[in-house]
């Protein structure tokens, strides 16, 4: 930890990921769009002063504001640029040497009531080397001139952002005869002089000229692609312009994926209350632990001197043990949430941008698949989609999704489309699992609903408080929660049709199918009526849960993307349980699911369907068009996988305990990755150990998985306490939870008011 000023790192250090992606040391760089650049620079005046290299930087900078600009200005003269829609002025002033003329221009901004530019970018040296044939006298004069200019720049730096651009190296073999005297040795001497003189007299930290030295590093990697050995290729100067934009705009625009130059966000009122609560929980747990330890020592079994019998220690009351368990859970959770906050809100650990390569995605995939196969064991039961098999399915899917996120594979469309199927498969299991439970058990009690809702939402609610994020930000949990409530409402609404009732009269099966058809109709209507969907979820209090950035569009997009797959899961469960009831499938150990002939035909069709979908997904050219088809066709690959996995008796009788272990904590893994494995709310990668990418991933992954496992245990323990089976006690707890959310809403409203 070297301090929180990531601007210094952005301006001075970094490396290339691949050929074109620049990665600053310790922080993430945002790629600014034209609209964002305009919003940042509205009513601003930017000035570039220097030679032809600075002119190149000027053009790359204004192209971030208006990409249509052409480099048609006078080569050795001033070039103005103005964007009237945003009142932005950007000027290039031709001063190829650090001399009296440049000093006079800079001095004019320090005197009287002349409007000062908001951003000043200065740099020059190669002309001095060229004109004076690289003489030592020219270097001495350069030092004198820069010494006279430095105090003026420092004075301007009090109210403006002033950058001194160090000279980039040249590719000496490619220089023309008239430029042969411009050597890298001379350039280094001029740069050294500038760095030593600038800020030497400034004691005020706010009055510092920022030295833009990162372009030297960029040039060292790319100058050999220069057309003349002196001027940088376009991609390199575009990178320099983007760095400039990040240095100035990140603190204004606060982009999620632009951690460079962003100050640590202040603690909100709710975060402060949460911090106090967890602190009190830790203190309370320590006090109770000390009291219990002292009581244990006092009551420790000892020999009675008169009778020679052992005295048993007193048994602690259930109330005390429940309180201790509650405080123990909150104590652990408080420490874990502190780690979350330090990783992704405090400027303590480094963050880096993702960079996709095929090897960074496919090699880990092959590795975990080999590991998964290695841990093959026999299942306890051989039913279709038994518990061990569904845990295994969730586990390998979650691991693939994690690798997809950390490798940045969303930029590769075939991988993106296959990952969309994995997310759909999770929702398919939601439909299948909850339908099966309600259909077989017929348990529509409040206890079951509260248990499921608590287990799904507990971690997300805590993270919304600690990390200051809206509920919809963790989109998968709202999605699963809403679909669970839809499944519950569909089956619980009159008439309640369950397996026991349907077995007595076959007509009830048609009644259930009618319910499912009504559900499908509602889904179809909402999917093609965005206005109706948004009206439903824009009503308070639903709007507080489903709005993101002031609207529910993100929620509409997420819901629409997998709108049919939960229905498909429910329908599959209904058909499977009906076939099972009428003994039309064989689920014995080692037996094929159907007769040999039917099994072989279905297996062949499944493999062909699975491969056909993969070929279609791999040939996708447009993400928008493929997303439109995805809700209707994703079920093909899901059903194909289920049949391939379950038709052969041997395959159905084994499972991977490695994948199943991860499957049991898949929800926690999915949510925790946002802040303690990835960084900047999934936009980047958390760096605990800089300079060693593989070792860093190993360490951060180990901590991440341990934390997810621990949170899973905490959630299970708290679910038993917060959601008791006794209805009267449960009602009291629900009233307490309602009071908690009312208080949360009140403090949230106070926060919003103070922000405005």
Automatic annotation (TrEMBL):
Residues 253-734 form the Cas1p 10 TM acyl transferase domain. It comes from the Eukaryota. Residues 22-72 form the NXPE C-terminal domain. Its EC number is 2.3.1.45. Pfam families: Cas1_AcylT, NXPE4_C. It is found in: Golgi apparatus membrane. InterPro entries: Cas1_AcylTrans_dom, NXPE4_C. One of its GO terms (biological process) is carbohydrate metabolic process. It is an enzyme of class 2 (transferase). One of its GO terms (cellular component) is Golgi membrane. Keywords: Acyltransferase, Glycoprotein, Golgi apparatus, Membrane, Transferase, Transmembrane, Transmembrane helix. It is a multi-pass membrane protein. The chain crosses the membrane at residues 273-291, 325-343, 355-375, 395-416, 446-466, 473-495, 507-526, 561-579, 599-617, 659-680, 692-711, 731-750. It catalyses: CMP-N-acetyl-beta-neuraminate + acetyl-CoA = CMP-N-acetyl-7-O-acetyl-beta-neuraminate + CoA; a ganglioside GD3 (d18:1(4E)) + acetyl-CoA = a ganglioside Ac-O-7-GD3(d18:1(4E)) + CoA; CMP-N-acetyl-beta-neuraminate + acetyl-CoA = CMP-N-acetyl-9-O-acetyl-beta-neuraminate + CoA. GO terms for molecular function: N-acetylneuraminate 9-O-acetyltransferase activity. Belongs to the PC-esterase family. CASD1 subfamily. This is N-acetylneuraminate (7)9-O-acetyltransferase. The gene is Casd1.
């Amino acid at each position: 930890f070297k301090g929180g000023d990531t601007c210094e790192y952005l301006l001075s250090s970094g490396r290339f990921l691949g050929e074109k992606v620049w990665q600053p040391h310790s922080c993430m760089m945002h790629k600014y769009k034209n609209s964002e650049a305009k919003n940042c620079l509205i009513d601003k005046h930017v000035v570039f002063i220097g030679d032809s290299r600075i002119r190149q930087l000027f053009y790359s900078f204004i192209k971030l504001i208006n990409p249509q600009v052409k480099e048609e200005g006078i080569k050795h003269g001033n070039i103005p640029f103005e964007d009237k829609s945003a009142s932005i002025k950007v000027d290039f002033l031709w001063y190829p040497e650090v001399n009296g003329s440049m000093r006079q221009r800079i001095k004019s901004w320090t005197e009287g009531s002349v409007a000062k530019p908001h951003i000043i970018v200065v740099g020059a040296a190669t002309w001095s080397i060229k004109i004076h044939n690289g003489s030592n006298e020219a270097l001495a004069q350069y030092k004198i001139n820069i010494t006279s200019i430095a105090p003026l720049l420092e004075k301007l730096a009090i109210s403006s952002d002033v950058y001194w651009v160090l000279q980039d190296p040249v590719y000496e073999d490619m220089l023309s005869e008239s430029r042969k005297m411009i050597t890298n040795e001379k350039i280094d001497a001029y740069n050294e002089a500038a760095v030593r003189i600038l800020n030497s007299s400034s004691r005020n930290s706010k009055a510092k000229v920022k030295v833009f030295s990162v372009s030297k590093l960029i040039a060292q990697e790319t100058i050999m692609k220069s057309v003349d050995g002196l001027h940088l290729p376009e991609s390199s100067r575009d990178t320099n312009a983007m760095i400039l934009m990040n240095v100035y705009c990140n603190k204004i625009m606060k982009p999620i994926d632009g951690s460079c130059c962003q100050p640590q966000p202040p603690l909100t009122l709710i975060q402060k209350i949460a911090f106090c609560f967890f602190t009190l929980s830790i203190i309370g747990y320590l006090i109770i632990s000390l009291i219990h330890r002292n009581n244990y020592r006092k009551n420790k079994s000892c020999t009675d001197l008169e009778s020679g019998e052992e005295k048993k220690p007193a048994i602690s009351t259930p109330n005390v043990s429940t309180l201790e368990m509650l405080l123990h859970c909150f104590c652990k959770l408080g420490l874990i949430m502190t780690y979350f906050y330090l990783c992704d809100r405090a400027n303590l650990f480094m963050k880096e941008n993702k960079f996709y390569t095929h090897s960074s995605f496919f090699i880990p995939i092959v590795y975990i698949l080999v590991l998964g196969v290695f841990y093959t064991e026999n299942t306890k039961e051989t039913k279709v989609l038994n518990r061990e098999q569904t845990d295994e399915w969730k586990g390998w899917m979650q691991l693939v999704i994690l690798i997809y996120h950390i490798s940045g594979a969303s930029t590769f469309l075939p991988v993106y489309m296959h990952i969309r199927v994995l997310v759909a498969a999770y929702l398919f299991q939601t439909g299948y699992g909850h339908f099966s439970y309600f259909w077989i058990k017929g348990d529509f009690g409040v206890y079951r609903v509260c248990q499921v809702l608590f287990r799904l939402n507990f971690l997300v609610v805590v993270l919304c408080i600690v990390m200051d994020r809206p509920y919809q930000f963790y989109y998968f949990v709202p999605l699963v929660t809403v679909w669970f409530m839809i499944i519950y409402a569909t089956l619980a609404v009159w008439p309640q049709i369950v397996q026991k009732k349907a077995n007595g009269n076959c007509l009830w099966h048609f009644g259930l199918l009618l319910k499912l058809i009504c559900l499908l109709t509602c889904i179809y209507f909402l999917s093609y009526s965005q206005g109706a969907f948004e009206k439903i979820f824009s009503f308070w209090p639903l709007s507080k849960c489903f709005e993101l950035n002031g609207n529910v569009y993100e929620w509409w997009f997420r819901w629409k993307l997998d709108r049919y797959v939960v229905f498909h899961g429910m329908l599959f469960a209904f058909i499977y349980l009906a076939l099972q009831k009428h003994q039309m499938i064989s689920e014995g150990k080692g037996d094929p699911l159907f007769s040999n002939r039917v099994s072989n035909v279905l297996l062949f069709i499944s493999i062909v369907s699975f491969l056909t979908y993969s070929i279609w997904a791999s040939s996708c050219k447009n993400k928008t068009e493929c997303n439109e088809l995805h809700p209707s066709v994703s079920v093909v690959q899901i059903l194909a996988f289920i049949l391939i996995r379950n038709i052969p008796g041997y395959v159905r009788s084994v499972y991977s305990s490695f994948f199943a272990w991860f499957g049991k904590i898949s929800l926690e893994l999915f949510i925790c990755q946002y802040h303690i494995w990835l960084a900047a709310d999934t936009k980047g990668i958390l760096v605990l150990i800089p300079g060693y990418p593989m070792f860093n991933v190993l360490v951060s992954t180990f901590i991440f998985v341990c934390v997810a496992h621990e949170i899973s245990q905490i959630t299970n323990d708290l679910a038993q306490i917060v959601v008791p089976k006794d209805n009267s006690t449960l009602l009291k707890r629900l009233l307490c939870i309602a009071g908690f959310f009312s208080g949360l809403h009140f403090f949230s409203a106070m926060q919003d008011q103070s922000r405005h």
